[in-house]
Write a structure and sequence with these properties.
There is one protein chain. The chain has 402 residues and is an alpha/beta fold. The chain has helices spanning 11-19, 64-79, 84-87, 104-117, 126-130, 134-143, 158-171, 189-197, 236-241, 268-279, 297-311, 324-327, 334-348; strands at 2-4, 26-27, 40-41, 92-98, 146-152, 177-184, 227-234, 248-257, 288-290, 319-321, 350-351, 367-368, 374-375, 380-387, 391-399. The chain contains 13 helices and 15 strands. The strands form four sheets. A six-stranded mixed sheet has the order 8-15-14-9-10-12. Strand 9, helix 11 and strand 10 (319-321) form a beta-alpha-beta unit. The longest helix is centred in the first third of the chain and has 16 residues, at 64-79. The radius of gyration is 20 Å and the shape is globular.
């Protein structure tokens, strides 16, 4: 597992900040935000892509989301005790990435250059750098492997969709190993202003550290952030032949669109049910849900209602939490970062708490982990994600048992 996130640029820092409910939301510095409708976000800081980059294009010319993925992938290989050179030329390694935006900061910069200097001064990297699939292309060049690059752009659920796709490639026998995850860097003046115009984010006047409040009665809207979460997936025999102890096993996946003319997030009911059916689970088998929980007025309630619809009275008998109180919502990177937090929960036997959940919303009345990380030896968890446009995805993770 590899992490580049506002609350930590490695898996340990990331996990400790979640356990400690140390919010990474602050004033936007990536552009002059004083006149922007929204002035706070979760920015990645103290990240040096040159530590990880090997190639001809200078890191500063790369899209921000691409540089994040390069660092997170490098960390994931280190964490897996695996060198790309050791894989060998006889194997084709899929790179399956979830990316929800086409590098908006690169698009803005190139449009500004066009307006200021004219068409003859355009960068030769303008189009390629803005393309969503550019992340996979650059990663392939970096790793110097025989690869096939697959890019999914299904909104905020793209990272979970990518992980499920990579797992299916392994299960089908097409590959023993896959590189997968999600990356996004949407914090730009264009993105923030557009989301504010759509009412999806609102101006927050209080302490930025307390702005992201999943399932809290005082929540106002989701808080945008950025980052990358990358994973190395292997089949059972391949991992054990290398003497590796896996973090978790992926056993199920479901995807569903919201029904037309219904509240956003209602499709989570069907994505959860599909994922459990796919994994052969009963409702009593699930003992934790890593919620999408962005802190949105509508989506939080919708997710709670979906959980109740699927689990009935059982919905009140297991814990639920959201890491977005610390992290904010990094679009396609959110799902993979939730998966990484669940993997750490398996490894450490602690359930991550929900930061800033101090006054529960009466409509969100499940067993939310709030005050402190909760000691628990989890066996089976669901990871939920909802995206703009009405897509919903759920992944099932189970504790690895030899």
């Amino acid at each position: 597992m590899g992490v580049v996130a506002p609350n930590g640029n490695d898996k340990t820092s990331f996990w400790l900040s979640i356990l400690g409910k140390q919010s990474a939301i602050g004033k936007i510095t990536l552009f002059e935000s004083d006149d922007c409708p929204v002035t706070i976000a979760g920015e990645v800081s103290n990240y040096d892509p040159s530590r990880y980059y090997k190639g001809q294009i200078r890191p500063k010319r790369m899209a921000r989301q691409t540089s994040f993925a390069i660092g997170a992938t490098s960390m994931a290989f280190d964490d897996a005790d695996l060198c790309p050179e050791e894989i060998g030329p006889e194997k084709t390694v899929p790179i399956v990435l979830g990316v929800s935006t086409g590098a908006p900061e690169a698009l803005e910069n190139n449009m500004f250059r066009l307006f200021k200097h004219g068409p003859k001064r355009m960068s030769p990297y303008a189009i390629s750098g803005c393309a969503p699939q550019n992340v996979g292309v650059v990663l392939s060049e970096q790793l110097r492997l025989e690869t096939e690059a697959i890019t999914l752009s299904t909104g905020c659920g793209a990272g979970l969709d990518a992980i499920a796709t990579a797992a299916d490639l392994i299960r089908s026998g097409r590959t023993d190993i896959a590189i997968t995850g999600g990356t996004d860097a949407p914090i730009t003046e264009f993105t923030m202003s557009s989301l504010a115009a759509a009412g999806m984010v609102v101006k927050y006047e209080g302490d930025p550290l307390q702005s992201s409040r999943p399932f809290d009665v005082n929540r106002t809207s989701g808080i945008l952030s950025e980052g990358s979460g990358m994973l190395i997936l292997e089949n059972y025999d391949h991992a054990l032949s290398r003497g590796i102890q896996p973090y978790a096993e992926i056993t199920g996946y479901g995807n569903a669109m919201d029904r037309p003319n219904e509240i956003p997030g209602t499709g989570l009911e069907r994505s959860m049910q599909k994922a459990m059916d796919n994994a052969g689970l009963r409702i009593q088998d699930v003992d934790y849900i890593s919620a999408h929980g962005p802190g949105d007025r509508l989506l939080d309630v919708s997710e709670v209602d979906a959980i109740k619809q699927v689990f009935g009275e059982r919905a009140y008998q297991f814990p639920v939490s959201s890491i977005k109180g610390v992290l904010g919502n990094p679009f396609a990177a959110a799902g993979p970062l939730q998966v990484i937090s669940c993997a750490q929960a398996f490894r450490t036997n602690f359930i991550p708490p929900t930061a800033n959940h101090t006054e529960p919303d009466p409509k969100c009345d499940l067993d939310f982990v709030s005050d402190l990380a909760r000691k628990s030896e989890l066996s089976t968890v669901l990871v939920n994600s909802h995206g703009m446009g009405g897509g919903n995805s759920t992944l099932v993770l189970e504790r690895f048992t030899p």
